[in-house]
Amino acid sequence: MPIQGKKLSAQQLEQVYQLLEDSSSKKVISGLNKLRQHKLDYKIISYLVGMSWFYPDTKIRRRIKHLIFKEVSDDYASFLKGKWRYLPTPTLPKVWTLIEEVVKHPQIDAGIIRQWAYREYLTNPELKLNNLKLQYLSSELATFKHLKVLDLAHNHLLTLPPEFGKLKKLDTLSLAHNQIAVLPTEIRKLKSLKKLDLSANKGMNNLPGDLSNWAKLVWLDLSYNSFKTLPLGICNLPKLKELNIAHNEIKQLPKAAKQLKRLKKLNWSANELSSLSIESLLLLENLTTLDISGNLLEELPLKLKKLPCLKQVTIHNMPALAKQRHQLKKNFAPIELIF
């Protein structure tokens, strides 16, 4: 049962928090001793729970645990005992799993637990969660609104939570090598995006409608997917400079591609092209680099020279064109052909 004592004033509580935050174990213990003289509410207890999970000193964690279990009600003690653990340097997914459980208790202050759980992450604008075999993302992701770079590549994700749309500062996102067939509409809320990697998501063959919010996007990778046509929303990306659609089934570009005024690099390799839709390409007036390697072309249209800014064309793994190497280089000069 809780001990009897006076409740801490706001000023006293702040002083205790400062002591508990101190790097000196002696001062931390002093702060814990001050708490023993007072009646603890669940805000303070929540703070101590977080501290006990993530504080590195074993002796201090033991004292915190003793103090908490002396203060809390029996039902809360029973709840905690099932969740009690020390997490020295946990991966974020493990922390998420823990917090998803503790926030179910009506008396827990999840915000305070998060202060301890995420303290090393909340000052870092970059978060790498790649190669962790993740199958889902927790709604806890909403806490990371400060993020600018998020790497979720090489996991087993099937979808993204609605909270994903709250990462408004995100400018670089990798979802490469997952199993996301359909992107949720919330991803359109990421207005700060500059680089987006959606490569190798197997069943992905479309993007969610209007992408005008991605007005800052300059780099987009859709390679190794199942696109049969280029999503029209991409044509509304005014700053897009690099587009990778390699290893899809896109046979031509839509007329709306002429809106891609800043597109300079296009990777259209391995799309089983037997003929090149030159009319589509001529819409890209500022294109400087084109990769059409690994297609089925037997000729390279001389009209490509009409692209005023074109400087380089890559045509690897194309036997029919390789046989014409010398003549093609002569015909297309000063454009560089890379065989």
UniProtKB/TrEMBL annotation:
Sorted alphabetically, the Gene Ontology cellular component annotations on this record are: cytoplasm
- Annotated signal sequence is none
Against Gene3D superfamilies, the record matches this protein to:
Ribonuclease Inhibitor
Is this entry keyworded DNA-binding?
Answer: no
Task: Work out whether the entry's keyword set contains Repeat.
Answer: yes
Q: Which UniProt keywords apply?
A: Leucine-rich repeat, Repeat
Return the PANTHER family for the record: PTHR48051, RAS SUPPRESSOR PROTEIN 1
Instruction: Name it.
Output: Leucine-rich repeat containing protein
Q: Species name for this entry? A: Microscilla marina ATCC 23134
